[in-house]
Structure formats: structure tokens, C-alpha cells
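Chapter summary example: a protein plus 2-aminohexanedioic acid.
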Amino acid sequence: MAMNAIGLEHEVRELLTRLGVQESRYTEGELVVRTPITGQVIAHVAKTSGPAAQLAIDAARQAFLVWRNIPAPRRGELVRALGEELRAEVEALGRLVTIETGKLLTEGCGEVQEMIDICGFAAGLSRQLTGLTIASERAHHRMMETWHPLGVVGVISAFNFPVAVWSWNAALALVCGNAVVWKPSEKAPLTALATQALFERAAAKVGGVPAGLCALLVGDAQLGELLVDSPQVSLVSATGSTTMGRAVGPRLAKRFARSILELGGNNAAIVCPSADLDLTLRGIAFSAMGTAGQRCTSLRRLIVHESIYDNMVTRLKRVYLSVGVGDPRESGTLVGPLIDARSFAAMQSALEEARAVGATVTGGERVGVDGAAEAFYVRPALVEIAEQAAVVKRETFAPILFVLKYREIEEAIALQNDVPQGLSSSIFTLNMREAERFVSASGSDCGIANVNIGTSGAEIGGAFGGEKETGGGRESGSDAWKQYMRRATNTINYGTDLPLAQGVSFDIAE
Ligand code: UN1
């Protein structure tokens, strides 16, 4: 396949200009940005220095002191305006996401749609930040809960959803009255610069937004550490590997700061004898091969009933051997490139490890693409394996699908749960007992448990996150907003007496 490599750097310039990013921000810097589509350099971004990052955190704190007193529905107007800017630029920002991460154009635009959706959700939420009233045991007393902004919210995001994850956090944090300081992945600073520019555009249109309310720190892990250790940052929401979470979590706990951790996933789907196999095949294909297996929700393990195993595996092999691998901008492509050489090496070493324990691997080899010698394209790998060996229990951020066989549903659920991670899971069945069992207390132990859809591609309306080594955080919809606020319990005495709770008497003589 021929590829127009020369045009990419020029296109990036055009997109960034259109999205409002100043040229000097991406031409004069020490951070070298490559596109995984060809492996070529497309920009040089200036890193934020330590002192500049500290100033940004200080400014965010000052902005918070103003922002917290602005009524929430008015704060919602800023988020609505951000959603409008994003809506106007879905194509441009979506294309930039594709160039920077290598995901398909439909997925790049889908990511921006996810941002628009959460802005809509948060704008509505800005009029629904409600609290409870609670029956008091004392006469002429009222108890209630009030929710208040926290302060500065730090967001650390990964390369694979370079902008949507920021928006899940920022949209909620902003309507809740917080300031936001964002440290994106070093591999994806361009989409972050563009998103920041769209935010500034929205803020200018709405007016009255304190300077420094949303800040962007571009650079390496040290800037993330600054957010983690800064006493001015009340909550850090971090997305990335379990290794990163192990470093970040205890440091935040040490200073009693809040954390939302979205770490590794090792998501499985169970395919039962009654499953609609055509639908199942499509569900598996999207979750396992979509985004080249580089979603935290990607399907990594398939647990198939022995009665349909051969049929399922034969059909899957056909799909794996014929799926279009190549330039994510081309319409025939379903699997784009891996992010970089390290990711390719990790995939190859996982496949080696699987072979060493007797697994049969279909696919997995590097695919040559014309004009992209420095890029890493792979055929997705289907790996038949007898047991859930160590390599299966680890998250390898690449398109590897391990296939296991089961006999009894209990055994399948036990296999599904027998990994350290707990993000997403699915069951494909038309048997309501199996489906209900799977979503019950003794079923899947994950934060997401689906029936007859794959493990990836969650909507923003639900709370997003997982259990065990996935970190336990929840972002996005439902009541995830509560994590971005502090709760106060208020007891108000509107009577003339002072009764004490629990019937305690404490009468003083004057
Ligand atoms: C991620 O991979 O970090 O459910 C997030 C999904 C997307 C989000 C993935 N909505 O696949």
C-alpha cells in the first residue's frame, strides 16, 4: 500500500492552525513527536519547565478560589461552549487524533464525539448537583448534605485516548467548581495543545472565566510527579499502566490526597452454546482488534464453550487472517499501527512466551506498509492456549486475543475472574440464567459487565472504571461527579432548645 508520508507534517500544521494552536508551540521544542502511521517526525513541542508548571498550579489554585463561587449552572455554560467548539471541529480534531495515535478515522472522530457527549452530560449535571436531606432525631433540627468544589484537579492521561479521558475528568471537575491541570502523555501532546486551544476559545466566548482555570503541562513523568506531590492539588485522576498506578497511588495516599486510578485491564468475553454467533463474531472483532488492541477495555481473553469452540475459532481465524492492516486513514483498514517500537517488542515477547507454553499462534507478525518503514504494523494475533498461563494474566497493550475452552459456566466465570485486573467483561448468550448470573454478585468481578456486546466502546452515561489492579476509580457518567466534590453534613437547629444526640445530657450551671 502506498502512503503519502510527505504530506503528513504539512497536514498536522494545517490542522493545528485551524484548531487555534500557535505555530511556535509545535515547531520550536525539544519534545519530538512522531506519528505511528509512518514513524516520521511531525512536530517539536516545547516542554513545560518545572518552575512554569509550579506557576500553573499556583494560578489554577487562584482561579479555583474565584470559580468555586460562580453558580454551577453558569459554570455549565463554559462546558457547553467547549462542547460546541468540539462539535464544530470533530473532523479536524478527530483527524489529528488519528495522526497522533494511529487509530482509525472513525475512532478518532468517535473519541471527539465522546468529548462532546460528556460536555452535554456535564452541562446538564450543572443544574443537578443535588444533596440529601436526612431525618434528624432531634426536634426542630434539619440535617442535609451539601457538596462543595475540591480545589485543583490533576489529570494524567495516556496516549491511547489522548483527549477523551481529559474531557471525562475536566467536564465534571469544571461544573463541580474545580480548576484542572492536565499532564497528557508525552506521546500525544499535539491533540492536547489543540484541545487546550479549543478550551481557550470557548472560555473567551463565554467570558468571566478566571485565567489559569485549565492548564496544560507538556513533558515527561516529572511533571506528573509534581501534580502528585503538590499539596495544592486535591485530586489526581491518572490513567495508564498498573506500574504507573503503583507509583502514583501510595504517593497520593501519603499526603491524604484523593485519587481516581484507571489502570490496566485484562478483559474477557465468555461465549456460551446459545450465543448468536454472527453477532458474537462482530462483537469480538471490534473489541479485540479495534484501536489495534490498544484500549484499556480491549478484549484480551475469549472463553468459549467446548461445543462451539472449533466453529468459533475457525471463523475467527478467517477474520484474523483477512482483516485489513494498514494506514488508518484508508477506508479498507480495520487495524492501524501500534504506537511505537516498544509496543511491538512487548507484543512479540508475549507471543514468544505463549509459544513456549505450547500455545498456537495465528497472525502476530509485522506487516510491511510502503512508505512506513519506521512504523509498526502487525497482523492481530489469535492465540489458542490450554490454560490461563502467566502471559494470559498480564496486560499486553497490543492486539493479542487468547482463546480458552470451558465446559461449565461456573468454570468460565472463575476463569474470567482469575486475573489481577478487573476493568471490563462480557458474556455472549441467549440464556437468561447465564446472563443474569454473569451480572450478579457471584458473576463478573469487573467494573463493567456486558451482555451480548463486547468489552470496549462504553458510553459516557455510565460510571467508567474497574476493580482490583485496575485501581478502583470511576469517571464519566452516573454519580462519578461526587468524587470531584467534598461532602459536608450540616445539622441546623431552628428551635429554642439544645437537645443532644443520643439522648446525652450535659447541663451546665451558670
Ligand atoms: C481507555 O482505553 O483508556 O470503553 C478508555 C471504551 C472507551 C474508553 C476507553 N469509551 O472503550
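Key point: Residues 114, 160-161, 165, 239, 295-297, 456-458 surround 2-aminohexanedioic acid (CB under 6 Å).
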